[in-house]
Write a structure and sequence with these properties.
This is DUF5618 domain-containing protein. InterPro entries: DUF5618 (IPR040988). It comes from Dyadobacter koreensis. By secondary structure, the protein is mainly alpha-helical. 76% of the residues lie in helices and 3% in strands. It has a two-stranded antiparallel sheet. Helix 3 packs antiparallel against helix 5. The chain starts with a helix and ends with a helix.
């Protein structure tokens, strides 16, 4: 129970960074890498999902900062893209890339491509600078 209470003390940026670090650890410790491909898709999917959740935490905080008391958590990727796009096109492009690289290609399709997943992780890291 102490860990759960500790998590509540983390800032949104720290929590997102923790998710991102967990994704990297899953890949390095469990996915196995050889010749530019991951060996175990199960762990790639797990890491992609974890990293994508970091991106959503970042976007939620970004929208809270922009919208203040009017903020309501987005319910779909379309809602995220519409709202983020109102404020910053560069952030919107990162969102679209992360959605494709981690959520669709990494999680749903279960890619084994190290390059695709690493690009997605790098884009989430760039997003962290926005909060």
């Amino acid at each position: 129970m102490a860990i759960q209470n500790q998590d509540n003390l983390l800032s949104p940026a720290e929590e997102a960074a923790r998710h991102l670090q967990n994704a990297k650890e899953i890949l390095s410790e469990k996915a196995g890498k050889k010749d530019g491909l991951y060996a175990d898709v199960k762990y790639v999917k797990m890491a992609a999902s974890t990293a994508y959740s970091a991106a959503l935490l970042i976007l939620d905080e970004y929208l809270k900062q922009k919208e203040g008391v009017k903020f309501i958590k987005p319910k779909s990727i379309e809602d995220y893209t519409n709202r983020v796009g109102k404020y910053d096109k560069k952030r919107l492009r990162l969102l679209v890339n992360v959605y494709d690289e981690l959520h669709i290609i990494g999680y749903y399709h279960g890619t084994r491509s190290v390059n695709t997943i690493q690009t997605g992780l790098s884009n989430v890291t760039k997003m962290l600078a926005y909060i």
